[in-house]
Amino acid sequence: MTTFRPLASPLHRPIRLGVLISGGGTTLANFVRFISEGRLNAEMALVIASRNGCGGIERAKNAGLRVEVVPRKQFTSVEDFSAATFDLLRSARVDLVTLGGFLSMLHIPDDFGMRVMNIHPALIPAFCGAGLYGHKVHEAVLERGVKISGCTVHFADNEYDHGPIIVQRPVPVLDGDTPDTLAARVFEAECEAYPEAIRLFAAGRLEISDGKVRVLP
Q: Which residues are catalytic?
């Protein structure tokens, strides 16, 4: 049995976050709010957008954050795109990379293993994988008729919506829900779950054993 901690001891300073976005930056905005309210001891070292023109770029600039655009379309391979992205994250001395609605596939290098987190708007392993993101997830949930959905924060690896699960938050699926109403309810859960996972990481309280996360006291 292989057991290790992604962070061997607690950080006694604000954790330096890298935030990767492809869209409106709502997760980014939530991090900014939690930090400003003193609910997350973190600093936003770098925001990277995978395309020009996404709304999250303006959000980041308005918050006074450093923003870099690494357009996925300018790279012929996942490997080259990933290398350019992680070079920027290294130079910014990022402790933890957080994916916030980041839609491009990444190849995570060894030095960032179990240092990249993702949030998915469903309870993995349900309604996840390639092609299931954003409202497509909520549409699939409603079409199937399930009664409980939610969100999952997990360590990212080199597969879509894969990697050890850190935090999950369930929410009810109500009669009459639309993708919009369900998305809003799930996002409320995401707003609490993602900062919780970051706090656990920064406190050195996450231990991984055979691909499963244990939260230490």
A: 120
